Amino acid sequence: MSVIQRTASTAVSWCTPFFMPFYDILIHRVTVPLVWRCSTQNNLRPLFSYNFSKRHVDIGVGTGYFPRRAIKDTGRDPKDQHQTLVDLSEYALTTARRRVLSKCPEAQVDCVHADAVLPLPESLKGQKFTSASLFLVIHHMSQPTASKANAIANAQSLLTKDGVLVGCTVLGKQWEKTGHGYKVTSGEPLGRAAALLLGYCNRRRAFDNWQDDPNVLVEALNAGFEEVETSVVAMMFVFKASKPRSEG
Q1: How far is CA 245 from CA 54, 111, 122, 186, 219, in A?
Q2: Residue 243 CB: number of other CB atoms within 10 A?
Q3: CA 77 from chain center: how many Å?
Q4: Are 175 and 185 in contact (CB under 8 A)?
Q5: CATH code, domain with 139
Q6: What whole-number distance in Å separates Cα of residue 164 and Cα of residue 144?
Q7: Side-chain-side CA neighbours of residue 52 (13 Å)
Q8: In what helix (H) or strand (E) does residue 131 lie, and over which residues does it extend?
Q9: What is the per-residue pLDDT across 142-171, written as a single tens digit (0 to 9) for each?
């Protein structure tokens, strides 16, 4: 029970009326490009938007930054867009839905209050989507990487046979990709700013990613999908997985 309680507290601790108005500026203009050294505009947004289908489920919504921009990026008629937002924070869900609809009032936006690593709620069972995303959420989960990988399995179960899953998460160490998987190149984060921010976020339990291992996430992706692409961009682990494996 303690694990579940900690997961809930860490995942929603930053989703407050005070912080959320500043989220996009602090995250997408400061910490992601300057501290984690992975460009939102050049790396993350294209990955999200290119794989954003007409029926999408976004797990870990933040402010709805990526979904509302993806509709514009795809040039899609908002009336043809259905997206389901899943998050542990009801405030984040309300904020994200409001912001998406403020730009695209004709889009269909549903909200589901749920923990990404726990069994799916009844409201999601039986639903199928052609794309899913886990953007900037895994590093918030306060569990071992193997347990966090449940979020990948949950997302996979929601996809159609031609569905695609994309995601990214901040790592707690410097990793590099080799011919035999990922290995730690330094136990220290990349740069003093990253070290200070990781230390602060982990102490405040907004993050729990010191021990996150991308190899475990790759294993979960390969277990659920036939085609998997992964990479590390500075402190960010980025992935795309397609062709979900059938059960059994």
Answers
A1: 22, 27, 22, 35, 13
A2: 15
A3: 25
A4: yes
A5: 3.40.50.150
A6: 25
A7: 26
A8: strand 129-135
A9: 889 999 999 999 999 999 999 999 999 999
Three-state DSSP at 44 gives: helix
Query: How many of the other CB atoms lie within 10 Å of CB of 37?
Result: 17
Q: How far apart are CA 21 and CA 23, in angstroms?
A: 6
What single string gives the DSSP state of each residue in 27-40? IIIIIIIIIS---I
Q: How many domains does the chain have?
A: 1
Instruction: For residues 42 and 52, give the distance between their C-alpha atoms in angstroms, rounded to a whole number.
Output: 16
70-79: string of b/e by CB count within 10 Å (b at 16+)? Answer: bbeeeebebe
Chain length of the chain: 248
Task: State the DSSP code for 115.
Answer: -
Query: Which among 205, 191, 217 is positioned nearest to 33, based on CA atoms?
Result: 191
| Tokens representing residue 162 in the block | 């031609």
Is the pTM above the cut of 0.85?
yes
pLDDT above 90 covers a percentage of the chain that reads 85
Domain range for 200: 2-244
Q: Are strands 225-233 and 174-178 parallel, antiparallel or unpaired?
A: unpaired
Strand arrangement, sheet containing 236-244? 108-113, 82-87, 55-59, 129-135, 159-170, 236-244, 225-233
